[in-house]
Amino acid sequence: MRRIFVKIFETPEIRIEGNKLNPTLRRTEALLYYLAVNKRVTRNEIIELLWEGQDVKKCRKNLRNLLYKLKQDLGFDLLISINRETLIVNPDVDFSSDYTEFLKEGKSYSGNILKNFILKRSPKFQEWKEKMEVQMSSKIKELSSGGSAEGALAN
């Protein structure tokens, strides 16, 4: 089983089998960070996140190219299509992150999410990143008052 670990807290990083990955495209990297939080996505969701407001036909082509580049960078299929629209993380891949560790084990978190990671011309990605920051702040407050990380996420 292949193992991918994605770090989204503080300075982001992607590791495959313990080795640091430097994706070919910045959008590929952004997609991996997004997948660390959302293991099931739609093609339209990715298009909106990475190419908001652009021609849909062109965006579909961009997405196909992005998924091809992702496969090239990783050397295997991380995402599989369960229908024409929905993609999920391949169940044969151990895909984990510091985010999931935080939720499951209450591991500590401090600082920023995706610190210094900027995706130009993708305001929706930046909005998602800022929303995650707010959610994490809420989770930390709830945990400090005796709640659970998963419970805080649901809010």
Description:
InterPro entries: AfsR-DnrI-RedD_regulator, Sig_transdc_resp-reg_C-effctor, WH-like_DNA-bd_sf. GO terms for molecular function: DNA binding. It is a single chain. The model has no long low-confidence stretch (mean pLDDT 91). The chain starts with a strand and ends with a helix. Helix 2 crosses helix 3 and helix 2 packs across helix 5. It has one domain: Orthogonal Bundle (Arc Repressor Mutant, subunit A). The radius of gyration is 16 Å and the shape is globular. The strands form 2 sheets. It has a 4-stranded mixed β-sheet with strand order 3-2-1-7. The chain has a 3-stranded antiparallel β-sheet with strand order 4-6-5. It has helices spanning 26-37, 43-51, 56-74, 98-105, 123-144, 149-154; strands at residues 2-7, 13-16, 19-20, 40-42, 79-81, 86-89, 93-97. Helix content is 49%, strand content 17%. The longest helix has 22 residues, at 123-144. Strand 5 (79-81) and strand 6 (86-89) form a beta hairpin. It is built from 6 helices and 7 strands; from the N terminus they run βββαβααβββααα. With 155 residues, it is of the alpha+beta class.
List its salient traits.
AfsR-DnrI-RedD_regulator; Sig_transdc_resp-reg_C-effctor; WH-like_DNA-bd_sf; 155 residues; single chain; DNA binding; alpha+beta; Arc Repressor Mutant, subunit A; 3-stranded antiparallel beta sheet; 6 helices; globular; 4-stranded mixed beta sheet
